[in-house]
Amino acid sequence: MRYLQLIRVAPDAEPGSDEDPTAWVEDTTRRGIRLRGDRLRPEDDATTVRRHDGATLVTDGPFAEAREQIGGFDLLEAADLAEAVAVAAAHPVTRFGAIELRAVAPFGDPELDAAGPPEAADAPAPAGWHTYVLLMGVDGDAPGPDFDDPATQEAWRTPLREWIADGRRRGLLIDGAALTGPEQATTVRVQDGRTVVVDGPFAEAREHVGGYQVIQAPSLDDAIELAATHPASAVGPIEIRPVWPM
User: Where does the YCII-related domain start and stop, copy by copy (predicted)?
Assistant: First the structure.
């Protein structure tokens, strides 16, 4: 089963010299648990895109203000939640921050698999291009699409299929998926050498991440254009975060 590991760190956190994640990355990658991941640039470098009444609205900053920002992510392949928790707890960031685990929610339709071709995950981006992560925001207080309704499913299926096909054709998509809701999240910390596991998201917030997409694009303007044409931009914000370095 796949889990997205969201790394949460306060801006004033001071990791120690023994909290370099390089050994964790090398070990989990070697074992085939960590499929990919990136450190994200600060939220000051975020751009949020929404679509309203046919117009694209672009604002600087994240879609939700939070003290502990998302500083990075890793996509994990684990046998079950218990293994994912054990892997997350071994990450040094849990000693001064927290990790929120969110299960990937498969669509069950190959044409709605938002990953690019397998070689896209390992190949370097074309010269001059940059890598970005799109975080699909969901407003928990606003009525969203009823995905239990077959008509709603079909209404989303066609534009999403077209968006994915276009992104693949242009070589923009690397990886992406929808996530299970925040009520199914698990937060992991390590305090005084003891692993602390809490059911639920890292912080209670009106808006949460409902999915993600890793892309590569020639510029931020191209990333904005891609985000603005995603069907999710019409029902919630999409936060664009460049990966580090940039």
Answer: 1-107, 179-246
